[in-house]
Amino acid sequence: MVHTGCPNAVESETTMTNLNSTQRGWRVLISYVLLGTLWIGVATTAGASSRSPASTVGPESVAVYRVPNLAPASTTISGRAIDGIGCQTQGKESVKYHIHIRVAIYVNGHMVRLPGGIGITQPQLVEKYSTGKFYDAGLYDCLYWLHTHVADGIIHVEAPTKQVFTLGQFFDVWHQPLGISRLGPAKGAVMVFENGKKIAGNLRNTRLLAGGVIQIDVGTPVIPYHSLTYKVTGGCGEGTRSCSLPKG
To answer: pTM, whole model, 2 decimals?
Structure first.
């Protein structure tokens, strides 16, 4: 008898080889699909984060972005001096040092803003204009030397003498935390850039420089530093020695 081999075994080996090839093909395909999905997700997140939200020009001739406030201005302390910074009533305000700093904030890649009225005690004087709300001290409240009038990110330093002020002092007036892992209610790694330079060391010691731009990132992704140009106009604008209300 002539043996012709085992055709069933050959068929089984061929079937297994084809099956393994098919499985490898599916694994490669799934890997590409997963990588593609991941890339699309990252690109979408980055694109959404890098796009500037809608904005209007506010009472200080600076863009006011339509984004949430980081925290309410109402947490401002009630009028006592803090960090050597006083709170002046409208009648006793003396301004011999007046500068502006613009602050941009991103939390997990999304812009939030400083509200208007930080550093102004209650009840605030709120003026409504076609360009938006302007917050100031009225007859029965006071204004800290570090404050905001509009939700446009502009910190006003209006002090009786020229001296060094810091971002930490501003947040103390606001009564909101600032540290390496928290900014106001937002939690995550905190990075601060000033005029394009990353701040090393204690973030609270970041100086408030005339005409400066400060960018604060909390969490990820970290948005690349954006250089912002601005000029504050109106009653609290460039070169003024007191804050009268804007016209219009």
So the answer is: 0.78
